[in-house]
Amino acid sequence: MKKLSECQIGNFAIVQKVEGERKIRRRLFDMGITPSVQVYLRKKAPLGDPIEITIRGYELTLRKDEAELVIVELKEKEL
Predict the structure, then answer these.
(1) Distance separating alpha carbons of residues 72 and 42, to the nearest angstrom
(2) What residues contact 67, with CB distance under 8 A and at least 6 apart?
(3) Helix (H, G, I), strand (E, B), or coil: what is residue 78?
(4) What is the DSSP string of 11-68?
(5) Alpha carbon 69 to chain centroid, angstroms
(6) Which of 11, 26, 27, 58 is least surrounded by CB atoms within 10 angstroms?
(7) 73-78 long-range contacts, Cβ below 8 Å, gap at least 24?
(8) Side-chain-side CA neighbours of residue 49 (13 Å)
(9) What's the CA gap between 25 and 36, in Å, rounded?
(10) CA 4, CA 33: separation in Å to the nearest integer?
(11) Which residues contact 62 (CB under 8 A, 6 or more apart)?
(12) What does the pLDDT profile of the chain (79 residues) look like in tens digits?
């Protein structure tokens, strides 16, 4: 298990847990980042902030500090 911010471009992962304060967790949940959902890391800015993921059929851009709160398990390919 690792943080979403540590994943490489092209990785598929399953969200295991969302950490952080209640307010930030609620915001991530509202964006669709919930446990057991699959994410695909599409792009990363040169310095790693922001990152772009595909989740639930749409593209979402996250700041690095937000991505560090999302704990994922890497998968070999899309489910």
Answers:
(1) 15
(2) 3, 4, 5, 51
(3) coil
(4) -EEEEEEE-S-HHHHHHHHHTT--TT-EEEEEEE-TTS-SEEEEETTEEEEE-HHHHT
(5) 9
(6) 58
(7) 73/1, 73/13, 73/14, 73/16, 74/2, 74/7, 74/11, 74/12, 74/13, 75/12, 75/13, 75/14, 75/38, 76/12, 77/12, 78/12, 78/38, 78/40
(8) 6
(9) 15
(10) 11
(11) 4, 50, 51, 52, 53, 70
(12) 899 999 999 999 999 999 999 999 999 999 999 999 999 999 998 887 899 999 999 999 999 999 999 999 998 776 6
The tokens for 3 are: 């943080």
**Token digits of residue 50:** 């922001």
Specify the pTM.
0.86
Residues 6+ apart with CB under 8 A from 78: 12, 38, 40
Whether the CB-CB separation of 25 and 15 falls below 8 Å is answered with no
